[in-house]
Amino acid sequence: MQVIVQKFGGTSVQSEESRKHVIKHIRQALTKDKDSKVVVVVSALGRKPKPYATDSLLQLVDYPTNYNSKRELDLLMSCGETIASVVLSNELKKHNISSMALTGAQAGIVTNNEFNHAKINHINQDRIFKEFKDFDVIVVAGFQGQTEDGEITTIGRGGSDTTATALGVALQAKRVEIFTDVNGIMTADPRVVKNAKPLNVITYDEISHLAYHGAKVIHPRAVEFAMQAKIPLRIRSTYEEDGGTIVTSGKSYQRKRPLNDRVVTGIAHQSELTQIRIQTKEEAYRLQSEVFKAMADAGISVDFINISSTEVNYTIPQHVTTKAVEILNELGFYPEVLKECAKVSVVGAGMTGIPGVASKIVQSLTDADIQILQSADSFTTIWVLIYEKDLFKAVNSLHDAFELSKVNYIKQDFVIER
Ligand code: ADP
Ligand code: MG
What we know:
Layout: E1 2-8, H1 16-32, E2 36-42, H2 54-59, H3 70-94, E3 99-102, E4 109-111, E5 120-123, H4 126-131, E6 137-141, E7 144-146, E8 152-154, H5 159-170, E9 175-180, E10 201-203, H6 204-212, H7 220-229, E11 233-237, E12 245-248, H8 251-254, E13 266-279, H9 284-297, E14 303-307, E15 311-317, H10 321-330, E16 336-347, H11 357-367, E17 374-377, E18 381-387, H12 391-401
Parallel strand pairs: 1-2, 1-9, 2-6, 3-6, 9-11, 10-12
Antiparallel strand pairs: 4-5, 7-8, 11-12, 13-15, 13-16, 14-15, 16-18, 17-18
Helix pairs in contact: 5-7, 6-7, 11-12
The structure holds adenosine-5'-diphosphate and magnesium ion (MG).
The site of adenosine-5'-diphosphate has 20 residues, from loops.
GO biological process, one term: threonine biosynthetic process
Function: Catalyzes the phosphorylation of the beta-carboxyl group of aspartic acid with ATP to yield 4-phospho-L-aspartate, which is involved in the branched biosynthetic pathway leading to the biosynthesis of amino acids threonine, isoleucine and methionine.
Domain CASTOR ACT: 339-400
């Protein structure tokens, strides 16, 4: 027996019509692959205002001004995926596919007790393997798990991706397929860049950078799980028969076609950021040691940190600006605060050691009259902070500058197996 994991996002499972495509892919995995069983991971049905979408459920308790504990929010939010698992399982049976629905907890997913953002600690595979004796398909509610002492938890937005790859690792799946509403990983978010192109192949490293810097097509933690266990990952459209993007470590694919023949692979962006700038004269050390500890203690995630002897700069999500400034004032720091910023990240494993990438970025943003507020780089990524009002223009200018719309995408049915 071999296990295939397929994950279907919210829009893919939102209607009976879209679920017909879902069922077709499940049937194909059962018939095309010999002696296979399928674990299907589902997100909640559609997006707000659909009644069982996560954000619609939260409205029932007037989130975020509600009186519920985080624990109770998790109880509530987990219902969306549980409902989706039963609805899909019901339709699979109607189509003569033997299927059983399980919550994350029943599927053996054990998390820590950080409600709303829990981490998967381990997965007990026994239940799923036991049910595979009687059923061909197990539909698992994504985005949720259970603590050691039986509390229901959720694992953060985009968490169903992580449920899928974590199950893929635990069940030693032949492959994990992430089905969504676009054709795969694209050179940029197609909602921002009209002529963005899907990529045939991408490395784990590149996709984790794109995901970490805001490409929400897959959750970064999901990539980490797949990468560690080298589980083949394919991101593809629910509405297409074939195609999509293969995520690989690069080595096996490079024999056919070198991955590093491209300098830039894709562009990610993240909006609604606030830049915090704190000047200091003598207290630089106290500043750097106290500020980041205070932010961490308050659960505020910081990014884009630049430290010099006279200044500390960093970004935070815009919605926590007031809280962050209050904390800094209490410490005796009075920051300059710049709201409505956005981060644009240019990612490519092939840029390492290639001169001129950064200058090309600066040049094309300058030509487009876009001011760079801050910048940073690593081996595979160069990122810049800009005003949010320039975001659309910036992503499109960079996409043009690196000629990403000329990427040659070939729609094919990949055979990649571990
Ligand atoms: P799902 O509900 O299937 O998980 P998401 O909305 O979470 O779907 O992710 C898919 C969306 O991610 C796409 O509709 C697209 O707008 C967005 N996206 C952002 N960056 C990229 C990218 N580089 N490639 C593909 N999609 C992207
Ligand atoms: Mg998603």
